[in-house]
Amino acid sequence: MPEKVLDVVLNDKFTDGIIGPSVKMLGPVKNGGLIIYITAPGCWGPMITPTIRGGHEVNVPVAVEDANIGDAVAISIESIIVRSKATSSGTDRPVDNAYVGDPFVAKKCPYCGEPWPKSRLEGIGLEAIKCEKCGSPSSPFRMVNGYTIVFDECRRVGITVSEEVARRLAADGYAWMDIPRNSKQFPVVIAAKADLVGLPTRLRPFLGQLGTMPSVDIPDSHNAGDFGTFLIGAPHKYAITEQQYKECITDGHLDVDSVREGAVLIAPVKLDGAGVYAGDVHAQQGDGEVAGHTTDVSAEVKVRVNVIKGLNLKGPILFPPPEDLPPMAKPMRAEEWTIIRRLANEYGLEPEPWLPVQVIGTGPNINKAAEIGFSRASELFDMPIHEVRNRVTVAGAVEVGRLPGVVQVTLPVPVKKMKELQLYEIAKRLYAPPFD
Predict the structure, then answer these.
(1) Is the pTM of this model over 0.85?
(2) Which CATH number fits domain 6-84+203-317: 2.60.120.580, 3.40.50.2000, 3.90.70.10, 2.30.40.10?
(3) How is the chain split among helix, strand and coil, in percent rounded to 5?
């Protein structure tokens, strides 16, 4: 690492889809410093670009001063500004013979067999991506049911467009999507899809990828407990063992729609320096990302990083913006707390002050992800797992981050325990409890 620790790091550089120990970190940024990311669109652009070796194109990691293995990094999202004027998305279908085991990772030309073939764009449509070696269509994906969407100037709302407009945008896709200069992806609006026309929607941007480096080299989109299972014993060079799956990934690929401006994500440190990375900004998404993909955009993202020493996490925890909390997990209002104290006094009790925490659970399916979330909460907060289940049921929730297997397990955690774990000040700042 360089000796000079930076107050601010501007990051407009990208990986080729692989993250882990072999990727050189920028920085280091100081503990408490600011990282500004210029992000590239996440899923579809990298998916259709044969040279990119992961499902996404994330920013290279940034080292954080004084972050060591066994610590955690609190990543406070200060702002997300959407730069793209339009994008495209939809459900996908892999192309036969265009990959080895995994179309997101081990791509090859379906005609000449060249691995991760250099390709050029000739016209519009996903078939216009041509292998430079043989001249044949080389993209490993097609869009089954898709749409093209444009945004208003202030990036508040969007509407899906007709085929005529989609084809016009496709002809100038790099400009409409504002693809960053260091990005290697083809702009997905070249698909010119218009199966869904005239649908208006709000923008509510968030980070699909935010976290710290895994301790083994893996495709960025597989740094999670659901997609990570595809790497166990895979027939390509990025295969991992089941033990590496359990110990090395950091669940940086969340697609949780509350990882947005105002949230604080706390990520485990599994490599010295942490390696905080970001990407895959979505303009909007409902819970679950049930289509497999949503509106990928370029963005400017500002985050502030603070090291929490010795907080040995198994996976991320999240403090979402107050309005994103499930109804039963919202902190007590002052008038409610007054009534609670009166009721407790009537029965000779001392009410337990608590604040909500979201523990991220990931796994091959939703049920397994929930079980992992309960287990992580049990270990982190030193509670029997049946107590965790009761707390989640009485004053929390299990919400779907992404199908097939990412969930947010929200539970009320005693303030005393939160102070022990150095989490209380973060929660207090966000949720303004009435009892302090």
Answers:
(1) yes
(2) 2.60.120.580
(3) 25, 30, 45
